[in-house]
Amino acid sequence: MIAYINGKLETVTETTAVIEANGVGYEIICANPFRFQDQLGEIVRIYTYHYVREDTQTLFGFSKVEEKTLFARILNVSGIGPKGALSIVATAGVKDFVVAIEEENEKFLTSFPGVGKKTARQMILDLKGKLPFEFDVSADSNDSETVKVSADQIKALDETVEVLKSLGYSDREIKHITPTLKQVTSTNTDELVRKGLALLMQK
Questions:
Q1: What's the family (predicted)?
Q2: Of 99, 133, 167, which marks where a domain is finished?
Q3: pLDDT band at 2, cuts 50/70/90?
């Protein structure tokens, strides 16, 4: 198991970060890769989850141990794959997610791409009562993982969604990339549209 990688941050894209360590370039699929944007060319540490199946090996990366732990717990829920778990971690703060599970807040849980009522109930069934032992969800805890978006960013994001719809993309396709777009700290609609199109073309 690869717990984390220390190395020079070479590139950041909408979905990945590449770290060079000891002459090897590791491509890591990240929750919120743009968090590392300001550290290009610097030595960084990314906490990794090594996902292994018969036909694939993938490194998923996180800026905090808590995010990695939550990803692993969500991944153990029946019906949740790595992309779904990563999307949840990328969009929700750890504290907000744990509170939603404990309060059985299905509306919050079904706001994530690919999560319907059945999957939300399964998450509650599998995780309720377990997460508070691993995560601090007290009122005074600092949940810096929560996505914070300014009013100008929200306006630009809304405009971007409308532009993508006018180009023929479905609500489902757009909803799938919205969590990643929220990580782009830009109020420029044109820039968001370009990034949105790049993400959609990867699907």
A1: Belongs to the RuvA family.
A2: 133
A3: confident
